[in-house]
Amino acid sequence: MNLLLDSINELFAPATAAFALAAIGLNFHFGLTGLLNMGHAGFMLLGMYGYAISTSRGAPIWLALVIAIVVAALFGLLLGWPTLKLRGDYLAIATISAAELVRYLGRSNTLQSLTGGSTGIRGNDFKFTFEELSPLPDENITFLFWTRHGSLSSSWWLVIVAWVAVALFALLYWQLARSPWGRVLKGIREDEDAVRALGKNVYSYKMQALVLGGVIGALGGVLWALGGSVQPDSMGRPTTFWIWTLLLLGGAATVLGPIVGSMIFWMSLVLIKGLASAFIPSSVLSPVEIEPFSLVLVGITLMCLVIFRPQGILGNKRELAFND
Fold first, then answer.
1. Which of 83, 109, 148, 290 fits a 20 to 30 Å CA distance from 77?
2. How much is the pTM?
């Protein structure tokens, strides 16, 4: 019973919302435009640093959010300027390298006074401005079977704000995907040479999609940091692959795909880890090995999904050219 409640709780956890928001940003890149951005964790990390560093140095919350957005947008412009003329695997290699560059800069000793180096930035140094905005009581609140604090880390306040943000940006994706701008991006995804022949500036449209998706990913990083701390190694290569996993799981180029994929991914991970701990003896798998084993099972499930339903749970097989 406890395992089931924990799994359901993970459906609406702030971390689930943070990854859903990051996946919505990646959906602008891949689902809408066809960009193979394999460095989305870099946008998330820059959003985390922009918000945390600004707040810890006395900036109000609105200014910290603006700084996080501007930093992510500048990174998107710098990343897109030399790389958006690349296609396929070459773009993927360039973006994953850029994200690793951000991570290594964050953990370097040279910038330790600013970023905290490999230890990162403690949550207590930057979360207070967000917690002070909470209208909820400063105490534990029980809703049905779950208890969370009203305003502190992973609180009901953070849950509400996180999922409202996910809903707003899902609505934004829905509106833009149906707009003339979104139809041009879909055309670029299917055949950019044909769109270029129609007189459209393909490079400009790609840049717009890269910057917008990157900013949304950075806001996902802010939500992640508000639930814990800023740790550069938490936004390494595995993070990007997790975002890709849940996007493909739910269905790229769909409005609800990133959200459903994030919910199923994190709930399944908690459920598998709980079942493995309960039924696999420690002599076979130690507690430290349970999580890698759970990720292996999730990876096998994704492989089966790609083979038997490549469009994802909610996707339309006719929507994307790579499913032909």
1. 109
2. 0.93
Q: What is the span of the domain harbouring residue 8?
A: 2-323
Structure confidence by residue, pLDDT tens digits, 249-281: 898 999 999 999 999 989 888 888 888 887 888
The answer for residues whose C-beta is within 8 angstroms of residue 319's C-beta and 6 or more apart is: 253, 254, 311
CA angle (216, 220, 223) in 5-degree steps:
140
CA distances from 113 to 64, 109, 234 (A): 18, 8, 19
**Residue 150 and residue 141 in contact, taking contact as beta carbons nearer than 8 Å:** yes
Bridge partners, residue 141, by sequence: 148
Which pLDDT band, with edges at 50, 70 and 90, does 88 fall under? confident
Domain count, the chain: 1
**Residue 263 belongs to domain with CATH number:** 1.10.3470
Angle ∠(156,162,165) on CA atoms, nearest 5: 140
CA distance 276 to 285: 9
Summarize pLDDT for 9-32 with one digit per residue, the tens: 888 999 999 999 999 999 999 999
Which residues, other chains included, contact 214 with Cβ-Cβ below 8 Å and sequence gap of 6+?
25, 40, 43, 72, 73, 75, 76, 79
**How far, in Å, are 6, 36, 133, 238, 277 from residue 271 at the CA level?**
8, 30, 33, 20, 10
User: Per-residue pLDDT for 219 more than 50?
Assistant: yes
| 319 DSSP 8-state letter | T
